[in-house]
Write a structure and sequence with these properties.
It is built from twelve helices and 23 strands. It is an alpha/beta fold and 484 residues long. The model has no long low-confidence stretch (mean pLDDT 93).
Length: 484
């Protein structure tokens, strides 16, 4: 007997920060549409449910990482992972999303049927295979591979007699109290882990191949807390969100236009705590600001741990693991009982779903991105992706407003299908990377699997908020969207 196919208007893949925002937008603006949310994990929260390493926190303020429809009210604007997870679960409850969420289910494949004008999804769940058909597919699965992070092979790793752990798979029973810990890496994860572990470990050493740019800032926004008293929580949130959005973009433009002037206050703040010698040796990157993401150090906690002798930094190349730690190519030995490989993430395209059009596999690297959210030649499919130089949610909410407008226009036209299609004048466009001007290893390793950018709108994917806002609010009748 044929397996029963469940039919809904919309499937949202993912119930993390992105998926929850999409579901709220859909429910608020198109309540007539039926939808389900397919989440592979056993609980909602996405990234904030996945990562459980010590000190996990936001690396952007919660006035811009939080939702505009649910003002962030806790005192700390740089929040712990647990506080963010609570916030997301509150959002699910407040907006009645629980009945729509299917936990513990992974979308294996999605095939577009031209005859039926629908996506047919093969899903594996707790009781086996499930089939769901939908008119529109919104992929909000993020871009991390939840099955594991990037784990380069180090020489001699098998000789090490202690524990080796990747932050993405932090064991619940790992206790670093009184132990010597080496953290390999210099990105946001390492910079978070080192001061957190240094609270109880005997010594924590950050072992980095090269430095990253870091900015010291307070985890409490005093102006926001004052405004809450003066004008109320919602108005305070709105004002601070607008201020922070403007500041983030202004700082990004300043960094790209005058990198030397941008670096000086960053370096000055570091030197106030650990001195010039430490800053020059370990916190002076060889690249320009925002070639890679700027890392946040709340209250300077990393540098206070270094100054107090609870942590230190070794910059250079690892020659080999040893029985008792690491040996650098300089000959320096780094003793360790635990080695944390904060060596980055593995990225995936569209949640590792196998996509096809009437049975023919889709190679997304052969497509052009439509406004950074859809793909040339692929119907009724949208992908959520945030900013790399500002808070993720700022772009998400632009994407969702665009999506809502697109659904409304489809209704007005009586259209069942909308497909981005290259116009005559777009043929032979110059092909560029999906995200330009980045050098972060985790992104560069993945770029070849993503769609490409063209040299003109709407086939571009800007990372500047004003440009993205203008792009996604432009008229839908651009000649590139084909309604049928």
């Amino acid at each position: 007997m044929d397996q029963t196919i469940e039919r809904v208007d919309v499937v949202i893949v993912g119930a993390g920060l992105s998926g929850i925002a999409a579901a709220v937008e859909l429910k608020e603006t198109h309540p007539e549409r039926s939808f389900v949310m397919i989440e592979a994990r056993a609980d909602v929260g996405g990234t904030w449910d996945l990562f459980r390493y010590p000190g996990i926190r936001s690396d952007s303020d919660m006035f811009t990482l939080g939702y505009s429809f649910k003002p962030w009210t806790p005192e700390k604007s740089i929040a712990s992972g647990g506080a963010i997870l609570d916030y997301l679960k509150e959002t699910v409850d407040e907006y009645g999303l629980t009945p729509h969420i299917r936990l513990g289910r992974r979308v294996l494949s999605a095939d577009w049927s031209q005859d039926d004008r629908s996506w047919d999804l093969q899903i594996v769940g707790p009781t086996g295979r499930e089939l769901v058909s939908c008119s529109y597919l919104y992929v909000a699965a993020g871009y991390y591979d939840h099955d594991g992070g990037h784990k380069p092979e180090f020489p001699g790793q098998s000789a090490f007699r202690g524990s080796v752990v990747h932050p993405q798979q932090w064991p619940d029973d790992l206790d670093c109290t009184g132990k010597r810990v080496a953290v390999i890496g210099s990105g946001a994860t390492a910079i978070t882990l080192v001061p957190a572990l240094a609270q109880t470990a005997s010594k924590v050493t950050m072992v980095q191949r090269s430095p990253s740019y870091v900015a010291i800032d307070s985890d409490v926004d005093e102006e926001a807390n004052r405004l809450r008293v003066e004008v109320g929580g919602h108005e305070a949130f709105t004002r601070i969100r607008l201020r922070n959005t403007h500041d983030q973009q202004a700082k990004y433009r300043f960094a790209r236009a005058d990198p030397e002037a941008f670096k000086k206050p960053l370096f000055d703040e570091i030197e106030k705590i650990v001195g010039r010698d430490c800053r020059e040796r370990h916190f002076t990157p060889a690249y320009e600001p925002w070639d890679q993401r700027l890392c946040l150090v709340p209250n300077g906690d990393l540098f206070h741990a270094i100054r107090d002798g609870r942590a230190d930094v070794v910059t250079g190349h690892i020659e080999t693991f040893t029985e008792t730690g690491l040996r650098m190519t300089s000959g320096e030995e780094v003793p360790a009982d635990v080695i944390v490989t904060a060596t980055g993430l593995r990225l995936v395209t569209l949640g590792k779903i196998l996509f096809s059009l009437d049975g023919e596999p889709i190679d997304f690297s052969k497509t052009f991105t439509y406004k950074g959210v859809a793909f040339s030649g692929v119907p009724n499919l949208l992908m959520a992706f945030g900013y790399l130089n500002s808070s993720w949610t700022l772009r998400l909410e632009l994407v969702n407003r665009f999506w809502s407008s697109l659904l409304t226009r489809m209704d007005e036209l009586g259209a069942a299908v909308v497909t981005p299609v290259l116009r005559d004048e777009d043929q032979g466009m110059t092909r560029g990377p999906w995200i330009k001007d980045v050098s972060s290893g985790y992104l560069v390793r993945h770029m070849g699997e993503m769609p490409v950018q063209g040299d003109r709108a709407p086939w571009i994917n800007p990372q500047v908020h004003e440009q993205m806002r203008d792009l996604l609010s432009a008229p839908l009748e651009d000649g590139a969207l084909r309604f049928s």
